[in-house]
């Protein structure tokens, strides 16, 4: 059997820096645990635009369809801010999500014990927090047609379309219920069914799917209240299920609760391929952080933990994923800190590469 | 000259309870400060549905168009959850917003000194917080067409349309810049211009309007980052300008930062009427709170402070608005607390009506 394949797309800003540390981890698993991967690398985002004039070359897209997992760093940066919408770095990422049909975006918001003091929230509100946001990732207002800027009378109008079919809602809901079965058996679905018909259909389909998971407790919340409850009492949640746009906002809100945005990974999963593995792309929740790019200051942990999610969801190596996550926890407990994790403790920050080495050493 | 007119729409749940306290305040200003108002009252939301079979009668709509200010309590409740979308209690409120053309929704998020301990956030992050969210309120995905649930092939699809014209964006932007001129001269505009063309037009128009306010510092932020920054470091903001849907979520998030959702008022303003006053509706940010309705537990302060906003924005009584706000601050400083404001202090909560009386006494 061939080795499982990974396509690395470091992207822009701190993407290449954090990805270099993931490479060390991949090498370690090959050398020490006999987990060999065929690793290739390519361009995405601004880096791809610089070379190809578009944020994702067709050959890269084809490769992404072909591998067992894609690892992505981050896209975008001020150099690309004035590009035309159609070639913006983000379009490369959105094309991957859409064409790979990665409908289920898993975003854990976890508070690491060693970092509980670091949150803006009071410690008792976040300590031990462990929620999973499932964000629908291939539809909604991100992709709905018609869209664009049009002439209307003597002015222009900007239009986007929120659009969800029953089957799109159903498959995202199913993945949330499946996850809840392996967690604390609670799903809270968030929409604006009081204002949007797409939210009414969302609520109806989620309720229907829930009948197949009688052990899971389902609740519904309007997304505005959801944002409020995330700040007020986030531990009330287990799995949160929501659409593409609400998920974008709510997951950033949830991520910040833990005070450790440089720490949070994500997995974007699609339907099973022929080999039984899901189509999959893994990426940190943080962006390309142009302000610190190239300075060796970035925290590679979010990207490293994204690889841990790959071990778990693509390569069926749950125990090895646990091992990697435990190594990260140990490094944090030992007080190793990149600059983003420094409270007022007077600790010297380590560099991106020192953090990667520390995780390897703790494995 | 006739007295200025106010239409009171108490609505559902705790709406009537908190509005009863506002009535005491209005009476006080008439008796003690010679500010006489012609006050009438009518139904909205579930209460209107029960009587008329729809959440806002046409006569009520006509009255609302005719008065100098509308004061609204809250709409909705579990009794109405299964009503058809077109007659849901919320539609009554949305009809008022749309037909009165109340395009600028002002939502202050303020941390009251006496309550800084009450937030989920650490005290230094929220103490002294004073931001103003300006939410566009008459357009966007709340009202865009086409909308509905349609058949498509052998399944259904839920559709809503995000839609903003240049002039809609412009007038909301102008109101944000005007406010910033009277505050700390900073506007942060939030959208998803990296994903939505309507966000691109939004950013372009806001930038154009800003040329008329050279003293105001304008920044742009993606709405997901905005949610994150609100939790991370809310004091970086002065005025936040955003659209209807993002404003719904971000303002709830901001409200919760202060830990005092029962405290926060809002004003929804439209174009000037013949008498020079803006079309205006004032309402607390909180909802109808069915869980505590009818128990005398609700905090009337948000609704009382909404009347203070009416004094300021509709009746040109800034000094009297200050007086009312100072009375609320004094009552809080004296330790008077409704049940929602009790931390672990062992204080006995006062009732809705006792809180109203305390504010009157402090005036
Ligand atoms: C970069 C951007 C297109 C993206 C999104 O809006 O989905 C990002 O914010 C995210 O959450 O992954
Ligand atoms: C009640 C509901 C229609 C309303 C909205 O979504 O605008 C509410 O959440 C608000 O923020 O005023």
UniProtKB/TrEMBL annotation, chains A, B:
Q: Which InterPro entries match?
A: IsoCit/isopropylmalate_DH_CS, IsoPropMal-DH-like_dom, Isopropylmalate_DH
- Location of site Important for catalysis? 142, 192
Gene Ontology CC annotations of this record = cytosol
Pfam families in alphabetical order: Iso_dh (PF00180)
What GO terms are given for molecular function? 3-isopropylmalate dehydrogenase activity; magnesium ion binding; NAD binding
Describe the location of the Isopropylmalate dehydrogenase-like domain by residue ranges. Answer: 5-359
Catalyses which reaction(s): (2R,3S)-3-isopropylmalate + NAD(+) = 4-methyl-2-oxopentanoate + CO2 + NADH
Give the record's family classification.
Belongs to the isocitrate and isopropylmalate dehydrogenases family. LeuB type 1 subfamily.
Q: What does this protein do?
A: Catalyzes the oxidation of 3-carboxy-2-hydroxy-4-methylpentanoate (3-isopropylmalate) to 3-carboxy-4-methyl-2-oxopentanoate. The product decarboxylates to 4-methyl-2 oxopentanoate.
Q: What is this protein called?
A: 3-isopropylmalate dehydrogenase
This protein's species is Leisingera aquaemixtae
**What gene is this protein translated from?**
leuB
């Amino acid at each position: 059997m061939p080795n499982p394949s990974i396509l690395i797309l470091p992207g822009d800003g701190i993407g290449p820096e954090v990805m270099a540390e993931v490479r060390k981890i991949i090498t370690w698993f090959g050398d020490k645990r006999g987990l060999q991967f065929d690793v290739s690398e390519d361009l995405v985002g601004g880096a791809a635009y610089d070379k190809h004039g578009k944020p994702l070359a067709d050959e890269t897209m084809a490769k992404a369809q072909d591998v067992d997992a894609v690892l992505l760093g981050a896209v975008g940066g001020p150099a690309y801010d004035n590009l035309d919408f159609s070639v913006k770095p983000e379009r490369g990422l959105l094309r991957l999500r859409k064409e790979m049909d990665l409908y289920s975006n898993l975003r854990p918001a976890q508070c690491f014990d060693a970092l509980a003091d670091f949150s803006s929230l009071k410690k008792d509100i976040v300590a031990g927090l462990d929620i999973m946001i499932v964000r629908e990732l291939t539809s909604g207002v991100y992709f709905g047609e018609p869209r664009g800027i049009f002439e209307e009378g003597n002015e222009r109008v900007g239009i986007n379309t929120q659009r969800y079919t029953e089957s799109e809602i159903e498959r995202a809901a199913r993945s949330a219920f499946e996850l809840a079965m392996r967690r604390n058996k609670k799903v809270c679905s968030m929409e604006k069914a009081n204002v949007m018909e797409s939210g009414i259909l969302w609520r109806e389909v989620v309720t229907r799917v829930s009948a197949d998971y009688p052990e899971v407790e389902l609740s519904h919340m309007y997304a505005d209240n959801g944002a409020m409850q995330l700040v007020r009492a986030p531990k009330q949640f287990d799995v949160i299920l929501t659409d593409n746009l609400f998920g974008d906002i709510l997951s950033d809100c949830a991520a910040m609760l833990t005070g450790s945005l440089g720490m949070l990974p994500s997995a974007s999963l699609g339907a099973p391929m022929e080999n039984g593995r899901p189509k999959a792309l893994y990426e940190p929740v943080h962006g390309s952080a142009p302000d610190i790019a190239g300075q060796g200051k970035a925290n590679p942990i979010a990207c490293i933990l994204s690889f841990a999610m790959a071990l778990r969801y693509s390569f069926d190596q749950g125990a090895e994923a646990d091992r990697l996550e435990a190594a990260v926890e140990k490094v944090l407990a030992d007080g190793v800190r990149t600059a983003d994790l420094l409270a007022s403790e007077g600790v010297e920050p380590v560099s991106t590469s020192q953090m990667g080495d520390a995780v390897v050493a703790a494995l």
